[in-house]
Amino acid sequence: MNAHVLEVERALLALNHHERAAVIHHGLQSLEDENSIEHDHAEVDAAWRSELRQRIDDIENGKVELLDTDEVFASIRADLAARRK
Fold first, then answer.
1. Which end of the chain is more exposed for a tag (fewer CB within 10 A), N or C?
2. What is the span of the domain harbouring residue 19?
3. Based on the domain organization, do 22 and 43 belong to the same domain?
4. Among 2-6, 60-64, 74-78, where is mean pLDDT lowest?
5. From the centroid of its chain, how far is CA 27?
6. For 5-44, what is each residue's pLDDT tens digit?
């Protein structure tokens, strides 16, 4: 690292926790292209909505069987216990 970078690092570490977090947050934001991030979020949100809609449809149409949580965890615990032996 050059001297300027070390000086900035020392100054950053001299700040309190909240100030340091704010500076780091702003620095990270400056590295990101806001337009592409908003676009990426919209694509991700649309993909999740589509996935959730498909899963709900599968449940409502009886294509998948829902399992009892307690039974699933009991089965997992039994499988793990068997592997430990």
1. C
2. 1-31
3. no
4. 2-6
5. 20
6. 899 999 999 999 999 999 998 888 877 766 566 667 888 8
Looking at the fold, whether 38 and 26 belong to one and the same domain comes out as no
Return d(Cα 10, Cα 1) in angstroms, integer. 12
16, 39: one domain: no
How is 15-80 classified by DSSP, letter by letter? S-HHHHHHHHHHHHHHHS-HHHHHHHHHHHHHHHHHHHHHHHHHHHTTSS----HHHHHHHHHHHH
CA 24 to chain centre: 19
Q: Tell me if 46 sits within 8 A of 38, measured CB to CB.
A: no
Domains in the chain, number: 2
